């Protein structure tokens, strides 16, 4: 048996603290993990929230599942194991972005509870907010913005969530959005309200999370 390769790796300690970054940016770091079926509106909500946050002077960024699969995860398919690796990688990226002080919006189907729990552990439970876009399958399928459900029903796409692969809904999400009934503005407002309730952002953007006036 080949000898196990030794890894001469030592984790370094940052000289800038999360409080330092929050003071600079005027808000705390957070990862908003948007999960739901294809067509539930994850990307639409994520980008609208990002726009609202940036307009309010907050540093936010969307990590979109399709975009990531064009680059970082272009080598992965859609089997259960590859989905697991897809979520593992994006969890590490989101954690790094949060370390940098950003409000990160992760828009991934992420169908398995275990995968989302791994993400929570990687990112840190204190800055992980799970948002479930709770939209009935028939509504998502009627929208079918990318024509994926039609292809899945025709057998052209294997392991498609909601059709030939399961979606395990969150049991206790931090926020549930029903975009089949809510307007986009209502969904964005609900997310911003959640961020205010959790102390990530202030009510009007004029104060830091610690309540001090911005310079």
What does this entry look like structurally?
The protein is α/β, with parallel strands linked by helices and 215 residues long. It has a single domain, classed as 3-Layer(aba) Sandwich (Rossmann fold), CATH 3.40.50.300. The protein has helices spanning 18-25, 42-55, 65-70, 80-99, 113-123, 137-143, 148-153, 184-197; strands spanning 30-35, 60-64, 103-107, 128-133, 175-177. Strands 2-3-1-4-5 form a five-stranded parallel sheet, sandwiched between helices. It is globular. The model is unreliable at 205-215 (pLDDT under 50).
Number of domains: 1
* Span of the ends, CA to CA: 62 Å
Number of strands: 5
Order of adjacent strands in the largest pleated sheet = 2-3-1-4-5
Portion in helices = 40-55%
Number of helices: 8
Keywords:
disordered C terminus; 5 strands; five-stranded parallel β-sheet; 215 residues; 8 helices; Rossmann fold; alpha/beta
């Amino acid at each position: 048996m080949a000898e196990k390769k030794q890894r001469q790796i030592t984790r370094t300690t940052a000289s800038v603290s999360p409080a330092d970054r929050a003071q600079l940016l005027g808000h705390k770091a957070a990862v908003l993990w948007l999960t739901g079926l294809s067509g539930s509106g994850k990307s639409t909500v994520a980008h609208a929230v990002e726009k609202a946050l940036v307009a309010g002077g907050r540093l936010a960024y969307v990590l979109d599942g399709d975009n990531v699969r064009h680059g970082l995860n272009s080598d992965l398919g859609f089997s259960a194991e590859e989905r697991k690796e897809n979520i593992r990688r994006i969890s590490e990226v989101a954690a790094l972005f949060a370390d940098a002080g950003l409000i990160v919006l992760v828009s991934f189907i992420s169908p398995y509870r275990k995968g989302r729990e791994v993400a929570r552990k990687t990112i840190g439970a204190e800055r992980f907010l799970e948002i479930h876009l709770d939209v009935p399958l028939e509504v998502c399928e009627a929208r079918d913005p990318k024509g994926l459900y039609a292809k899945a029903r025709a057998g052209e796409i294997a392991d498609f969530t909601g059709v030939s692969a399961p979606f395990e809904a969150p049991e206790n999400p931090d926020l549930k959005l029903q975009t089949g009934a809510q307007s986009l503005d209502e969904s964005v407002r609900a997310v911003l309200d959640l961020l205010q309730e959790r102390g990530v952002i202030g009510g009007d953007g004029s104060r830091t999370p610690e309540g001090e006036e911005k310079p």
